[in-house]
Amino acid sequence: MINFTSALYLGLHHSSRVLQPWQQLSLGVPAALAEPPGATEVAQQLAQLQGCEQGVLLPSTLHLFWDLFGMLFQQQAALFLDAETYAVVRWGVEQFRAKGGEVHIFRHHDPDALLAQIKRLSYGKRKYPVAIADGFCPACGHAAPVGEYLEIVRHFGGLLVLDDTQALGVLGEMPALHCPYGKGGGGILRWSGSSGPDIVVGSSLAKGLGVPVAVLAGSGKLIKRFKAASDTRVHGSPPSVAVIQAARHALMVNRSRGDWLRQRLAQRAAQFRNGLAAMGLNTIGGWFPVQILREIDGSEAVQAHQVLSRLGIQAVLSRPRGSNVAHLSFLITARHTAGEIDQCIDMLATVIHGSGKSANRNRKTNALTL
What we know:
It contains 11 helices and 15 strands. It has helices spanning about 40-50, 60-75, 85-100, 110-125, 145-155, 190, 220-230, 230-235, 240-280, 300-310, 340-355; strands spanning about 1-5, 55-60, 75-80, 100-105, 130-135, 135, 140-145, 160-165, 200-205, 215-220, 285, 290-295, 315, 315-320, 325-330. It folds into 2 domains: about 10-255, Type I PLP-dependent aspartate aminotransferase-like (Major domain) (Aspartate Aminotransferase, domain 2); about 260-355, Aspartate Aminotransferase, domain 1 (Alpha-Beta Complex), CATH 3.90.1150. Helix 2 (about 60-75) packs parallel to helix 3 (about 85-100). The strands form 4 sheets. The protein has a 7-stranded mixed beta sheet with strand order 2-10-9-8-5-3-4, with helices on both faces. It is of the alpha/beta class. The chain starts with a strand and ends in a 17-residue tail after the last helix.
């Protein structure tokens, strides 16, 4: 079975054999009393990777955004949420709303809509505007207009909050035609060239870097305030020492082999898209490793998913938020071989054309040497 359901984009697994040993998984105290060994160092390295001043580790992005929006409620903020922001962020926003906080939704990736809503608020109530978005949206295949969002909130003295879970470890600085992901893996801030004390980034390492832990990165002042206000750092367990050691290992691999893995990943994603294009199929996702078929949806997607499974191909069958129409997605990782990508395309041809061969298809995999 060839698996196209894993979001471990760089293919990092972090076997126990390659991690530094630990004497105990937990200190038995919350992070508010004592940080687990290595937590502060790893958080600082992750913050620097993303272009931020300081960071703090949390067990998950749910813990992170729950506490972040709890802190912002105390500061009399008004939230402006991109309409397609990921579910976990929205759960934190709902907690903010349940407390009586003011929440506004603006059109996906539409800076003009954000500006209009903030302007309407500024005429009446004087509140601290906070714009919220995903750094990269796999559902539409585009990065958020981070620079434009930042310019707007900066004009009003506000804050930009980004969930960079998809991009961390994948995107980086200096993207180019031959290097679409850029270098370094620092995420959307590095990729867009944005920075400043009025940006805070919450990210899980569970996708690009392969570690189930989250980091909040921003200015030193904001992170200090977050630590003082955080409820989960008082009432919940911090990340385990084992997870922190895995994050340390992920950073080490990212420094030594990350750019090579990203280049391999870009080649596999391009091979997949080119193979589908030769069959007359298109995907949502562009050069990103999440590829969603455009032409096959609804009951056809369900049937295709079942047939592919019988043929040895695991794909993702999902329904976008607010839609009842099923879509078929393929998640590419750096562990996929050129042969596996070709095999997947052949099986798709079988499903679509009822034959193991598709017409006018001429793939060239000999150039995919990584």
